Structure formats: C-alpha cells, structure tokens
Amino acid sequence: MNTFNFKPRPRVMLIYTGGTIGMIENPKTGAFEPFNFSYLRDQIPEINRFDYVIQTYQFEPAIDSSDMNPEIWKKLVKIIVYNYDNYDGFVILHGTDTMAYTASALSFMLENLSKPVILTGSQLPIGMLRTDGKENLITAIEIAAAKNEDGKPMVPEVCIYFQEKLFRGNRTTKFSAENFNAFRSHNYPPLAHIGVNITYSKPLIRYPDETKHLKHHLLLDTSVLAITLFPGLREDLIEHIFSRHLLKGLILRTYGSGNAPQEKWLSNALRRATDEGKVIVNVTQCQTGAVEMGRYETGRQLKECGVVGVRDITIEAAITKLMFLLGHYNDPTIVRQIMCEPIAGEMSEAQI
C-alpha cells in the first residue's frame, strides 16, 4: 500500500493598503493609478510559479502613505485576526513614508504573533520597467510562506522586507527617499539576507510563547507629541506645549546619548509636566547608538526631572509604543516603567 506525505499548499493573504507599489500607468492618460489586485497574477506572472494559494484584500480607496493613521492600523489588525487561522502568513503592501510606523504599531497590537506579517512596498510603481516592486513583492510572499523543518513559520514577526534585507519592523526606519534600499535597521541586524538563497539569522528572530494564543489590541491613545531639540529652542513655545491639558505623552528627541540644554527653565518645565502626570520619553536624534542618561550631566539632569530613557529605540517605535501604553494604562508610573522595557523586541535589553 502506497502512502503519501501530503503537504497542503501554503496560504498567503496579500493586503494592499496603497502606496507606490500598487500603481500602474493608465495607457490613455499616462497617469499612475492603483490597479486591481484581483488581477495580480496578470501584472506579475512570476507569482504563478509559486505553488501557493494567494488571496488578496484591497483597500478602497487606496491610502496614500502620508494619510496613514491609527484607525487604519486597527483595521489591519482586525483583517489579520479575522483571517488568522486560514493563512500561513500575511503580506501588507504599504507606502514607504509611514511603513515603519505601521510596522511598529502592529508589533505591539499583535501580541504573541506566531505567523509572519511582512510589510513591503517600492520606490517605483510596479508598472514601470525598472521597478523594485516585483522583487520586493515576490520575496515578501516567499518569506510569508516559509517554514522550518518542524513546519513552523521561519519568521513569526512583524517585519519589513526591502531590497534584499528582512528587518524587524519596530527596529526599522526609512533612510532614503530615492534609493532602492530605502530602509535601515541601525541598531539591530537584519533577520534575513536575500541573495541567490534566503539566509535567515535564526538567533535574532523572536518566537512566540507556544503556551499562549495570539492576543490582539485595539486601544491607542494619540495624545502624544514629538519635539526635536535644537539650539535656540524658545521657552515660551515649550511652556505653551507643556501647558496643554490634552497632552499625555511627549517624545523628546535629544542630542547624542540623551543630552539636553541645562537651561533652568527647561528643567522646570519638564519637572512640572512630569508632576502633572505627563510621560516624557528621551529618544536620541542620532541614527545609531542609545540613550544613556547617566553618561553626562546634561543627561542626568533630564533623569532627575522624571524623563525616561528608552535606549536604542527608533522614533517610530517610541511614538507608537507610547500611544499603545497610554491606551492601556491610566497610571503614568506604569507607562514610564513599561516604556523602558522591551515588549516586542523594539529595544535592546538594559545593560547590567
């Protein structure tokens, strides 16, 4: 009697939100416009070489990256959760400008994720001859479907795939407006390098707790603001911002390893805001390196004012994490504490 090892075809859900990748030239007008992803295989016939089941979901109308917002993040989470048991992985096509914000937000909103959620896009429309969109899309689909020798997903994380590198989503930032390698993960290595083969860096990948199920979150509080420090920052403007009662969280983009001017008025404003229950987070303006508020006097001063340092987190992850925590906790002390702890691989562990 013959026996067969039947392996079901991998199932991937492709979600098109908008962005450059989904554009195609209208032959009559010459303008680029979103194409119908129901005809995806006609536009990219190479996909037919995959023995996958690929289903598509298209946002109508398509959303420009600049118009991305938390309500759309919630919709994406609902789509993924509703279809979670029916697919091996998910690919989200997204505009590049806010892709790192969406990837960061989803990493917090999809707790204990056990399947790949891969965001990708392109710098040139998929209908152009030299587009980077085809390779990005094809590889993202392959990664979303990839499983290890135990039959488990290779990368059960929210990731960004772009130009031969797979990054942890909440460690990624957009680096270039015109290069094909538009994204960087300055403080964490790529999870995979793509060449002739896909080489995964398994020790770098986060894996779920197999005793728990996916838990999704939809609560976000957008009462946050980010301020970049610069020479000449005015006292009256800072006082005006800090006096706003609706403000619950502030990202302070500081110099170097977390330094700020030693102006008395700034210290007083920060201390007063902290005493009022506002959560103030210290993120460095530098692309690489981490906030170390005990390193210089200018950093220690911020710590004494109640400002919390979040080491090597990106600005995108800091903002979305603060929204996430403020949406779940009313106690600013708890928010400050968890901001300093990695909950989705978004920052390095504290050095002991």
Structural summary, described in words:
The chain is α/β, with parallel strands linked by helices. It has 2 domains: 11-216, 3-Layer(aba) Sandwich (Rossmann fold), CATH 3.40.50; 224-339, Rossmann fold. The protein is 26% helix and 20% strand. It has 9 helices and 18 strands. The chain has helices at residues 40-43, 70-83, 99-109, 133-145, 235-242, 264-275, 297-304, 315-328, 332-339; strands at 11-16, 23-25, 32-34, 53-58, 89-93, 110-111, 117-120, 158-162, 165-168, 173-174, 183-184, 192-194, 198-200, 215-216, 224-228, 249-254, 279-284, 308-309. An 8-stranded mixed sheet has the order 4-1-5-7-8-9-12-13, with helices on both faces. The chain has a 4-stranded parallel sheet with strand order 15-16-17-18, sandwiched between helices. A two-stranded antiparallel ribbon has the order 2-3. Helix 3 runs parallel beside helix 8 (315-328). The longest helix has 14 residues, at 70-83. The mean pLDDT is 93.
